[in-house]
Hints:
By secondary structure, this protein is an all-alpha fold. It contains 12 helices and 3 strands, in the order H-H-H-H-H-H-H-H-H-H-E-H-E-E-H. Helix content is 57%, strand content 2%.
Amino acid sequence: MPGPGRPSRAEVHRRMEEAVQELRNQFGGLPRPGEAADIWSDIWHQEAHHSTAIEGNTLILHEVEKLLDEGRAIGAKPLRDYMEVRGYADAAKWVYSQALEPGDWQDGSLVSVQEIRHIHYLAMTPVWTVAPHPHAFDAEAPGNFRQHEIARFPGGMKPPPWPEVDSLLRSWVDTTETLRTNSDVPLAERLGVIHHRFEVVHPFLDGNGRAGRLILSLLLGRLGYPPAIIYKRDRSRYLTALQRADKGDPGSLGELIARSVTGNIYRFLMPAAADATHLVPLPALADNELSEAALRVAASRGRLRAVKGDDGVWRSSRGWVEEYAGTRWRRERA
């Protein structure tokens, strides 16, 4: 049961679909990377930082930004940490481009085995050059399937024997097509099932978590949704959700994906795409100075110009929020 003030799981899924529908109706959907480089750059930095941090990478966000934007390895971290981020970022950039501006790789399917192997190759090659897996055969280099058995994970899940990986992954690719069909099960929960099944197959000797999250971004992009960044603060929640999915309960994982997608729409996409007059939901206008809760109170009291829609959602514009912030500052100074 959700705690006091915490939305139900069904409400979380509903909010995700409403957010993406608003993005499509107001701004035409996801912007192309070539048309909105700044937006995608912010998402790129965040995903490269948080997804590698989940695996134990020690670079902080500022170090990630310097590495990716300027090619500078500031700080005194292990070389492998810089190479992990560099590889993940290369793969993420390829994923964003292929999701929205597909080239020859796209064959009409949501994802292919060839793309999965290429994503893993891009993500893992830089770190592999300085810190290869100590037990890897030559045939298990980045982009190649494992030829080792994998020990049982915490919680009890045991990946399948390595000779079964190729056929299982091809079957997994076929199951991704079910994401295009209508279902009573929320999309984010079905994505959680798909993401978990990839991790169960565990096709590579190393880097399956990173590859799985990148593939999740590719699937989301091709379905018209932004990436689901799993933040390092949610690492324990993410791992627990995967363990619950091991036992047949994908609900927590689906909820985590839905929250992330919704948050990315309001944090990165709507604020950057909206001009001073666009009416957008209050979460897209919140910042460190004015939280969503503060804006909602101001709107309900008539201090912030805003419109409450038939769906119960308050919407305002950047111009109206700036106007309110100015009058608020003057009231506080008076």
